[in-house]
């Protein structure tokens, strides 16, 4: 865990589980509303199937779950009371943060007539803002599934996006969905949350890029990043034109994040890069 300006590494979070099975960490997310005197809580998932909650300031692991799969993504509810994980077995597990126990399993039915869940790996999960019961997920099966925790199977879906990373976002108004697909055509798309209809295929940049990450960047812009030219670009939401980009990173950009000041962090190869808007 680094300082916000990347000037120093503050904490190194590891234990015998992560050291004995040194496979990649696939998700990290701070628990909402955990920045109190007790210290920050950080959710981390691993390709080994471990799901861990870390107490950052003491570098201690507070809880561990071992899922029988590769765990590839996770997301908290807005209030930090629940989190969901997805991975290689097409199921989504939802955990109660107070009990540290699994509260729900969301999955497809056995019906061959209904597309009410995933049939391939899941790479991204996103809870609806200010809603503890509703979330979206996407992955290799070219669908975005809509889930309600009061139902075991998904309640509807969008067909199209091919997600290979954390590239699924709901905007702050809960009206639009942003997806980034790992493909050359129609990679970045915006959808209507209520109808599931496609609102816009964002025009590609002059440099090709197959996307692993997509984020809303404040209220005015979009951040999209991936491989091919190992590029991250910023698109203005009114013109849908590229307003900035970084090219030829040392490897594909597999994850990104944005702080409250609009500072962007990108991961490429073994490095993390801090990107600011030029003055």
Overview in brief:
By secondary structure, the protein is mainly beta. It has one helix and 23 strands. It has one helix at residues 16-20; strands at residues 25-30, 41-46, 50-55, 60-66, 71-76, 82-87, 92-96, 101-106, 122-127, 134-139, 143-148, 156-159, 168-170, 176-180, 188-192, 198-201, 209-217, 221-228, 232-236, 242-246, 253-258, 264-268, 271-275.
Describe, in plain words, how this protein is organized in 3D.
The protein is mainly β and 279 residues long. It is built from 1 helix and 23 strands. It has one helix at 16-20, and strands spanning 25-30, 41-46, 50-55, 60-66, 71-76, 82-87, 92-96, 101-106, 122-127, 134-139, 143-148, 156-159, 168-170, 176-180, 188-192, 198-201, 209-217, 221-228, 232-236, 242-246, 253-258, 264-268, 271-275. The strands form 6 sheets. The chain has a 4-stranded antiparallel beta sheet with strand order 1-2-3-4, with no helix packed on it. Strands 5-6-7-8 form a 4-stranded antiparallel beta sheet, with no helix packed on it. A hairpin with a 5-residue loop joins strand 21 and strand 22 (264-268).
Task: Record keyword descriptors for this entry.
279 residues, globular, mainly beta, 4-stranded antiparallel β-sheet, single chain
Unreliable residue stretches: none
Give the N-to-C terminal Cα separation: 28 Å
Query: Strand pairing plus helix content: what structural class?
Result: mainly beta
Shape: globular
Rg (C-alpha, Å): 18 Å
Largest sheet entry: 4 strands, antiparallel
Question: Count of DSSP helices?
Answer: 1
């Amino acid at each position: 865990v680094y300082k916000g300006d990347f000037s120093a590494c503050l904490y190194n979070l590891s234990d015998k589980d992560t050291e004995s099975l040194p496979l990649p960490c696939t998700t990290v997310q701070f628990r909402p509303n955990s920045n109190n005197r007790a210290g920050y809580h950080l959710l981390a998932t691993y390709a080994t199937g471990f799901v861990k909650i870390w107490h950052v300031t003491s570098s201690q692991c507070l809880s561990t779950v071992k899922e029988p799969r590769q765990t590839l993504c996770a997301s908290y509810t807005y209030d930090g009371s629940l989190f969901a994980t997805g991975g290689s077995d097409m199921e989504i597990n939802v955990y109660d943060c107070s009990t540290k126990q699994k509260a729900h399993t969301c999955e497809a039915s056995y019906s061959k007539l209904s597309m009410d869940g995933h049939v391939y790996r899941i790479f991204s999960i996103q809870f609806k803002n200010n809603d503890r019961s509703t979330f979206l997920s996407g992955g290799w099966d070219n669908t975005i599934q809509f889930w309600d925790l009061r139902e075991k199977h998904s309640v509807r879906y969008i067909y199209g996006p091919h997600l290979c990373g954390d590239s699924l976002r709901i905007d702050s108004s809960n009206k639009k969905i942003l997806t980034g697909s790992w493909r050359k055509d129609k990679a970045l798309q915006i959808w209507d949350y209520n109808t599931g209809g496609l609102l816009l295929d964002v025009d590609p940049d002059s440099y090709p890029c197959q996307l692993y990450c997509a984020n809303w960047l404040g209220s005015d812009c979009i951040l999209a990043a991936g491989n091919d030219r190992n590029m991250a670009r910023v698109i203005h939401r009114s013109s849908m034109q590229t307003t900035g980009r970084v090219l030829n990173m040392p490897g594909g950009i597999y994850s990104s994040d944005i702080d409250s000041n609009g500072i962007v962090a990108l991961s490429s190869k073994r490095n993390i890069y801090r990107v600011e808007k030029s003055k």
